[in-house]
Design goal:
The protein is an alpha+beta fold. Helix content is 31%, strand content 36%. The chain is built from three helices and eight strands; from the N terminus they run βααβββββββα. A hairpin with a 2-residue loop joins strand 3 and strand 4. The longest helix has 29 residues.
Length: 136
């Protein structure tokens, strides 16, 4: 069993709007800066530029449950699963992400990755609250 850490953020916007924003791969670079420098569609799929090179990204199928799990396929062929949820909470929502510690990652690096993920969610909150407020 892998170690896991779950982090979350409350966003003062409707869950459906946040879900739609997060499902758009082009928006990743605006908030998921810990792993995505840019995103582009090519060869029938979405790819992100990471600090470790290019990775293919795919999301779970569009669904009404707020499940946004995504999979990163690295150049090495390894595919990593990242559970991600957007859950309604009245007129706002909770975004919850779980990070699994790979066997080749030290405890120190795992804590750093967890911190980076929490920073990403904070950036998501800021981005979405401002963006969606301006669209009202």
């Amino acid at each position: 069993m892998l170690d896991a850490r779950t982090v979350s953020v409350t966003i003062e916007r409707d869950a459906k709007d946040v879900y739609r924003f997060m499902r758009e791969p082009m928006n990743l670079a605006a908030w998921a800066k810990s792993f995505c420098q840019s995103a582009a569609y090519k060869d029938g799929g979405w790819y992100v530029e990471t600090g470790e090179g290019t990775a293919r990204i795919r999301f779970e199928e569009d669904n009404p449950y707020g499940v946004l799990d995504y999979y990163l396929k690295l150049a090495t062929g390894e595919e990593m699963h990242h559970p991600l949820r957007v859950m309604p909470n009245g007129e706002r929502c909770e975004v919850v992400a779980t990070l699994f510690r790979r066997t080749d990652v030290s405890e120190e690096d795992f804590l750093l990755d967890s911190s980076l993920l929490l920073n990403d969610l904070g950036r998501l909150k800021e981005t979405v609250e401002v963006l969606l407020k301006n669209q009202l």
